């Protein structure tokens, strides 16, 4: 699933109120935009939704993506870089990768 966070004033004690858990159907959010999106989904789905996720992420917003296999990392990075993101951090646990990306300027 994907979690959306509108983080105007992030205080972790308020996190449950700020997070909106969606039923993994991106179309239901329409034109809403968020400061932070966390997605733990299959790399193929992530790649397919790269541009759509960007559309719903505020300028300079962060995307935290996990569920990426090490063997798929370059493919994911290539797609997101070409969609206007910059890679901030990559971390791994065994063969599983988590990546933090920032939305760049609108092209």
What would you say this structure looks like, in words?
- By secondary structure, this protein is α+β, with helices and mostly antiparallel strands.
- It has 4 helices and 6 strands, in the order βαββααβαββ.
- It has a 6-stranded mixed beta sheet with strand order 2-1-3-4-6-5.
- β5 and β6 form a beta hairpin.
Q: What is the average per-residue confidence, as pLDDT, rounded to a whole number?
A: 78
What Rg, in angstroms, do the CA atoms define? 13 Å
Q: What is the β-strand count?
A: 6
Strand content: 35-45%
The 3D shape can be described as globular
Distance between the termini: 28 Å
Number of helices: 4
Which runs of at least 5 residues are low in confidence (pLDDT < 50)? Answer: 14-25
What is the string of helix and strand elements?
EHEEHHEHEE
The level of helicity is: 10-25%
Q: Output the strand order for the largest sheet.
A: 2-1-3-4-6-5
SS-based class:
alpha+beta
> Major beta sheet, specifics?
6 strands, mixed
Topology of this protein?
Blueprint: E1 2-5, H1 15-18, E2 19-21, E3 34-40, H2 43-48, H3 50-55, E4 57-69, H4 73-82, E5 85-93, E6 96-103
Parallel strand pairs: 3-4
Antiparallel strand pairs: 1-2, 1-3, 4-6, 5-6
